[in-house]
Amino acid sequence: MKTRVLVSMCAVLLVWLTVSSGAAQTMVLPEDVFYWQCNPQWGSDPFGAGCTICSDGVLVTCGSMLLSWVAETPSPHPGELNQWLTVNGGYIGCSLIWSVVAAYDGQDSGLEWLGRTTFGFDDWATLDAELDAPDRMPIVNVLNGGHWVVVYERDGPSGIPGSYRVLDPAQQSFSADRTLADFTQGGGQIIFGMGVYIGAFPTPQRVFFDGFESGTAGAWSSSSPPTL
């Protein structure tokens, strides 16, 4: 009897800790928020100065993925977000203004823009720190600066490209096997920078542990470039 009571008390304590830490959220899987930028539904939609979502809308697509994770208003697909950005000053030419994406849901508890930085080398420690923070999601610059992917998880040793799982807008469908290892270039630099948003991202790895990670996220400058 004493054993059962003790187990019950431990279970109650665990639930209380989970709820009080803000971790009692609906779990959202990466495949639930994935979008392909060239989907025929929106791929030919224009923006900026002669650009389309399929040709130049990788960041719009990444923004749609993040908003689908956290937005308190209905989650926009890339076409819907592009329409909203077009009428709300979201572009300079074909360059996205990162901070405007965060204004889409209009809620302080939704998506917030933190900042952007560039790397002169593969700065795995900075990327790790952002992934360890329970409320941050990095969009990472790859392919010599020519492409962006959402890095949502590290599953393996730090600094090993295959440990970092990504959502790649250039892929036609979601793949759990897509990692930063797919963006190696003859053994050279892989990550060239990143932009980071803040939000409640209830992934399988974070839903039970929000508030308990020990990682220290990097400091961000308010002077970070505001556009692509």
Please give a structural write-up.
By secondary structure, the protein is an alpha+beta fold. The protein has one domain: Cathepsin B, Chain A, CATH 3.90.70. 26% of the residues lie in helices and 18% in strands. It has six helices and nine strands. The chain has helices at 2-20, 53-56, 58-70, 78-87, 98-102, 124-132; strands at residues 46-47, 51-52, 91-92, 95-96, 112-118, 136-142, 147-154, 164-167, 193-198. The chain has a five-stranded antiparallel beta sheet with strand order 5-9-6-7-8, sandwiched between helices. The longest helix has 19 residues, at 2-20. It is globular.
Following the backbone from N to C, one meets helices and strands in this order, namely: HEEHHHEEHEHEEEE
What's the shape?
Answer: globular
- Number-wise, the strands total 9
Individual helix count: 6
- Sheet-strand content, in percent, reads 15-25%
What is the CATH class? Alpha Beta
CATH topology assignment: Cathepsin B, Chain A
What is the mean pLDDT? 81
Instruction: For the record, give the distance between the C-alpha atoms at the N and C termini, rounded to a whole number.
Output: 63 Å
Class of secondary structure makeup: alpha+beta
Sheet with most strands: 5 strands, antiparallel
Low-confidence stretches: 1-25, 206-228
